[in-house]
Design goal:
Length: about 100
């Protein structure tokens, strides 16, 4: 059976563009594994649908490949950040399930 759930740790950062989006960059090792196992199922912009859980909050979203780091990026919605008290620079433990 193919592993599709990951327990990860990453640092929150803010995109410097106009929108000020918050992201987590998935670790290199897991990004390579996810691309190897699920890259063929990628959607627009190389995205993969996921379910993420941080603290008591879970939601459906997508991860996106980043050409600079060769890792996947996970955008953090404002309502999730508010519910969980997440700020720029925080180190988060989270689970991510690839939805295939």
């Amino acid at each position: 059976m193919i592993k599709n759930t990951y327990k990860l740790k990453a640092k929150v950062w803010v995109y410097s563009g106009m929108a000020g989006w918050y992201f987590l960059t998935l670790p290199e090792k897991q990004s390579r594994e996810i691309k190897s196992l699920f890259g063929g199922e990628a959607r627009g912009w190389g995205s993969l649908p996921v379910v993420v859980a941080i603290g008591k909050t879970s939601w459906k979203t997508s991860i996106f490949p980043d050409k600079k780091t060769a890792c996947y990026l996970l955008p953090l919605k404002a309502d999730v950040r508010k519910k969980e008290g997440i700020s720029d620079g925080d180190i988060l433990n989270f689970s991510l399930e690839i939805r295939t």
